[in-house]
Amino acid sequence: MTTIRKGDLIYIPQAVDLWDVSEGSSTIKYFKTEKPETGVFIRMDAFNTCRVFIKGQESSVSLKSIYPMEDRC
After folding, report:
1. Is pTM, for the whole model, over 0.90?
2. SS3 content of the chain, % helix, strand, coil (to 5)
3. C-alpha to C-alpha distance for 68 and 20, rounded to whole angstroms
4. Rg (CA), the chain
5. How far from chain centre, in Å, is Cα 29?
6. Of residues 71, 70, 62, the one with CA closest to residue 15
7. Would you call 12 exposed, middle or buried from its count of C-beta atoms within 10 A (0-12, 13-18, 19+)?
8. How far apart are CA 13 and CA 16, in angstroms?
9. Exposed site from 8, 11, 36, 42, fewest CB < 10 Å?
10. How does pLDDT run across 4-55, given as a tens digit for each residue?
11. What DSSP line would sit under 27-40, residue for residue?
């Protein structure tokens, strides 16, 4: 099993749901990837989700939907 660390590049396939809840608000920004994307892993979040940086913004995504860009030895 590969461990993803803060700052690692990740691969996010097409049709993956991402979201961001604005702090102090009930507004949820939601989008689905239209094509495979590259992002940066930020940190683990709650309930098998993590925070990633993609398309110029920080978002949450299911941990099972991301893959490391390279294997570590």
Report:
1. no
2. 5, 50, 45
3. 21
4. 12
5. 14
6. 62
7. buried
8. 6
9. 36
10. 999 999 999 999 999 998 777 778 899 999 999 999 999 999 889 999 999 9
11. -EEEEE-SS-EEEE
DSSP SS3 for 56 = coil
Distances (CA, A) of 36 to 3, 11, 49: 21, 7, 19
Within 8 A by CB and 6+ apart from 56, the residues are none
Distance CA 54, CA 67 (A): 14
The answer to whether 10 touches 52, Cβ cutoff 8 Å, is yes
Sign of CA dihedral 58, 62, 65, 68: positive
